[in-house]
Amino acid sequence: MRENDDGQSKKKKKKRNVVFVTVGTTCFDSLVRAVDAPEIKQDLLNRGYTALLIQMGRGSYIPTKCGGEDGGLAVDYFTFSSSIAQHLKSASLVISHAGSGSIFETLRLGKPLIVVVNEGLMDNHQSELAEELAERKHLLCARPQTLHQTISTMNLESLIPYPPGDATPVAKLINKYLGFLVD
Amino acid sequence: MTMGFTFAITLTVAAFTVIVTRIIYVIYKSSKPLSKLGPQSVSTLIVLGSGGHTAEMLNLVAVLQKDKFTPRIYIAASTDNMSLQKASALEASLVDERDDGTMSKKALFMQIYRSREVGQSYLTSIGTTLIAIIHALWLMIKIRPQVILCNGPGTCVPLCLIAFFFKVVGIRWSSIFYVESIARVRRLSLSGLLLYKLRIADQFFVQWPQLQRKYRRTHFVGCLM
């Protein structure tokens, strides 16, 4: 699997294979620091990714920029952008904080997703959603300190596409309660 | 003197009994669907919670029959600029669909003072919640909705409390629907728990089956996102 990916990346040297990291409007330095670590960057490179783009939000840890000319992983970052959707669309792999907005936007695009739970949050109910969706194999769930292990052992083929949500069951129950005829 | 005292006690007890009976009656009646075939259309208050909450709510609004749920009044926290923009984009798309421009008059957009910011301590929340309740009361007197749709967080709690108060006093009967956020898999949110335990939400929807098993009066509806 890994050798296969290696081969592909050599053949399509020019094709950009971007890993997009997003923390939304939060401050999540431990995630930015984790993806900036050499062993994770090496792993991503081995798996055929060519670039790492980090949306770092309100965090203060500045990752090391790298052009990737030496055959290494190109690393770039920014704080906020109005075109997150565009970055998600052009990514091959998304590593996201556990906010439901980011999670469902990525799943709707059918992109492989690793959600990293921020254990520093006061009211940490966010892990519930990520863990449930991971159990249903729609995404992978990690913590900053386990991210490296998740990336080195991940099998993205095993992920199951997320079926789009449907609000009609709620609407039906509301209609029924209010006595509206449902067509 | 003692006569007057006894009279005062009796009056207080009577008043208390009437109020409690009325509250029990309101809760009982709210637990049942509206008895007769409902009105042709209902004024609908849609409380937008910000971020993911707003996205879920607008997914629901998108599938409602717009001619039944009209007029629609959207409320978002004053600190939240995005939600009303997204709602007006949705309403604008309805106008385009109909192509007659009448829909735009059937949607109103309002902002409300927020009771609790994400991460704010529970202690300081008490003061800000009080101010929020007064503002909410003012808005609710103006709107007097027949239907309230909400899905947390904090903003919707004062609005629902006031709506319940209006039901008890007889100012306006409303049906309150709460959809717990998709992010809540194992436990209800604080807002959800309040509205569920106090039986203020007439119908309480959850998006995960394990939540329904834990809170038996809820309805499982699957994922909105």
Tell me what you see in this structure.
The complex is a heterodimer of chains A (183) and B (225). Chain A has 183 residues and is an alpha/beta fold. Chain A has a single domain (2-178), classed as Rossmann fold (3-Layer(aba) Sandwich). Chain A contains eight helices and six strands. A six-stranded parallel beta sheet of chain A has the order 3-2-1-4-5-6, sandwiched between helices. In chain A, helix 6 (126-135) links the parallel strand 5 and strand 6 (140-142). In chain A, helix 3 (38-46) runs parallel beside helix 7 (147-153). Chain B is built from seven helices and seven strands; from the N terminus they run H-E-H-E-H-E-H-E-H-E-H-E-H-E. Chain B has 225 residues and is an alpha/beta fold. Chain B starts with a helix and ends in a 5-residue tail after the last strand. In chain B, strands 3-2-1-4-5-6-7 form a seven-stranded parallel beta sheet, with helices on both faces. In chain B, helix 1 crosses helix 5 (156-169), helix 2 packs parallel to helix 3 (82-98) and helix 4 crosses helix 5. The longest helix of chain B is centred in the first third of the chain and has 30 residues, at 2-31. Classes of the chains: A alpha/beta (183), B alpha/beta (225). Chain A binds chain B through residues 99-101, 104, 122-123, 125-126, 128-129, 131-132, 165-171, 173-180, and chain B through 33-34, 36-38, 42, 51-52, 55, 59-60, 62-65, 68, 119, 147, 149, 175, 177, 179, 181-187, 189, 202-203, 205, 208, 219, 221-225.
In short:
Chain A has 183 residues and is of the alpha/beta class. About 4% of the residues of chain A have low confidence. Chain B has 225 residues and is of the alpha/beta class.
Percent helix among the residues of chain B? Answer: 40-55%
Ends distance of chain B: 67 Å
- Rg of chain B is 19 Å
What's the total helix number of chain B? 7
Indicate the CATH class of chain B. Alpha Beta
CATH architecture call of chain B: 3-Layer(aba) Sandwich
| Regions with little confidence, pLDDT below 50 for 5+ residues of chain B | none
Please describe the biggest sheet of chain B, giving its number of strands, its sense, and whether it closes into a barrel. Answer: 7 strands, parallel
Task: Classify the oligomer.
Answer: heterodimer
Count of discrete domains of chain A: 1
- What percent of the residues of chain A sit in helical stretches (DSSP H or I)? 25-40%
